[in-house]
Amino acid sequence: MKLLTFKGGVHPSHNKEATEHLPLEKANSPKVVYISMSQHIGAPCSPLVKVGDEVKVGQRIGEPQGFVSSPVHSSVSGKVKAIKMMTSPGGQMTQCVVIENDFTDEIFEEIKPYGKFEDLSSSAILEIVKNSGLVGMGGATFPTAVKLSPPKEKPIDTIILNGAECEPYLTADHRLMLETPEDVVEGLLAIMKALNVTKGYIGIEDNKPDCIKAVSKAAEGKAGVEVVGLRTKYPQGAEKQLIYACTKREVPSGGLPMDVGVVVNNVATAAQLAKTIRTGMPLIDRICTVTGSAVKNPKNLLIKIGTLYNEIIEECGGFSTPPYKVISGGPMMGISQFTLEVPSNKGSSGILCVTEDEVKPKETQNCMRCAKCVNICPAGLQPLFISAYSLNDDYEKAASYRALDCIECGSCSFICPSGRPLLQSIRVAKKEILAKRRKESK
C-alpha cells in the first residue's frame, strides 16, 4: 500500500504502547452526571428541563439556539438536581444540567431504530444527524449537521474519514476501528448517501496496521470506499493536511474543505452515526483513553457523557504518583486542567496524566532564527513572526502573516530549541484578531 502524506510536520514519540492493545471497557455508570449545554463549537443550548424533572436515557435536555449548534441529551435516567455553571475541559464556564442517576437505565420512549441507512433518503439521514446531537468526535466538536449542509454553490464530491489519530498517547480511535470496523464503514456510506457522494476515503496511519487490515476487510465490496495508508507524522489528522494527502487538493488560505469539494469527519463520528441509525440512540457516550505514567491502570473506557474527570481517573485506579499535569486530549493540542471537577463531553477523547519527566518544559530563551518552525509548519506559516508580533500586542501585523490560518497543532512549539511560547502566543493573536473583527462587524 502506497503511503500518503503532506508537507511539513513533526515526529513526536507515539507513547501509545500503554493502551493500544487494551480492549474497550465499559466504565461504571456515575451516581451523578453533569451535562454541559455547550458540547460543540457554536451557540450553547438552552435547557429544556428544570430542577425536579425526571429524565430518561436519550431524552433531549438541551435545545440548539443557532444554526451552528447541536442538541444535548441525557446519558442516564434520573432526576434533575440542579442547573449550574461549571468549568469545562476547555477552561470556559459552561451551564450544566446536573442529573442524579437512578440506575434504572430507562430509555426515553421516542428512541426507536431508524432501520437500514440504505432504505433512508438523504434528507432523512441529515435529519437523524441533526436530532442525534452528532459532532466531530476527534475533539473539534463541530456540529456534523452543519458540515453535511454545504451551500449549493459548494458541491461536494469526496468524503474523507480521519482515522489517523496522530496525537501521541491517544488510542480511542485505534480501538474503535479495531473492534467495530463495520460501524466505521457503514457510517461513511451513510454520510456519502446524505451528500449524494460516490467517493469516500478512510485514512489510517501506518503505525496501525491492524486497523488498516480490519477496516479494509469491512470495506470489501463497498462501492466507492477506499482505505488509504498514511505515513505516520503529526499532524496527519488535521483536515487540510488529510485532504492534501488523500486528494492532493489544497484548501486556500481562509478557506474550508468544502471549497475544494471535500467533507472530513472523524471515524468515531461516522461510527456513532451508524450506531444511531441502528438503535435510535443519540450521542450519549464515547470512548476515552486514560493514560500517562501518572495513572495507575491506563485504559480505553466507554464513558457516559457528563462523568467528571476525577471519577474517570478513579476508574483506572487513580494516580500512581502525583501528576505534573492532567491534560484533556493529547499532549500536542490538549488543554491542561486546573481542576478535575470538570464534566466529560462529546469531545473528551483522552485524559492524559503525566509526570514532569514526560512533559518537562524547555527553558525559554531568545529566538535564534533557526527557522525550524517555518520548515515544519504544515500550514506553510512563519510562526516565529506571528508569535513575536502577538507578544508585542501588534495583532494587525500578526494577521498580515496569516495568523488565522494556524491550525494550532503545536508543531512549532514542539520543534523550537529555544522553548518559545509559539502556539500559546499565536492562539492569543487569533482570539484578538477575531474579537476585533466581530466588534467591527457590529
UniProtKB/TrEMBL annotation:
Name its cellular compartments. Cell membrane
Q: How is the cofactor bound?
A: Binds 2 [4Fe-4S] clusters per subunit.
Q: Where in this protein does the record put region Disordered?
A: 1-23
- What EC number(s) are associated with this protein in UniProt? 7.-.-.-
Query: Which positions are annotated as binding [4Fe-4S] cluster 1?
Result: C367, C370, C373, C416
Q: How does it sit in the membrane?
A: Peripheral membrane protein
Q: Does the keyword Membrane apply?
A: yes
Q: Where is the composition biased (Basic and acidic residues)?
A: 14-23
Q: Which residues bind [4Fe-4S] cluster 2?
A: C377, C406, C409, C412
Q: What's the main place this protein lives?
A: membrane
* Ranges of residues in domain 4Fe-4S ferredoxin-type: 397-426
Pfam families attached to this UniProt entry: Complex1_51K (PF01512), Fer4_10 (PF13237), RnfC_N (PF13375), SLBB (PF10531)
- Listed cofactors: [4Fe-4S] cluster
Quote the SUPFAM superfamilies the UniProt record gives: alpha-helical ferredoxin (SSF46548), Nqo1 FMN-binding domain-like (SSF142019)
Keywords, ordered alphabetically: 4Fe-4S, Cell membrane, Electron transport, Iron, Iron-sulfur, Membrane, Metal-binding, Repeat, Translocase, Transport
Similarity comment text for this entry: Belongs to the 4Fe4S bacterial-type ferredoxin family. RnfC subfamily.
Subunit field text: The complex is composed of six subunits: RnfA, RnfB, RnfC, RnfD, RnfE and RnfG.
Q: What does this protein do?
A: Part of a membrane-bound complex that couples electron transfer with translocation of ions across the membrane.
Q: What is this protein called?
A: Ion-translocating oxidoreductase complex subunit C
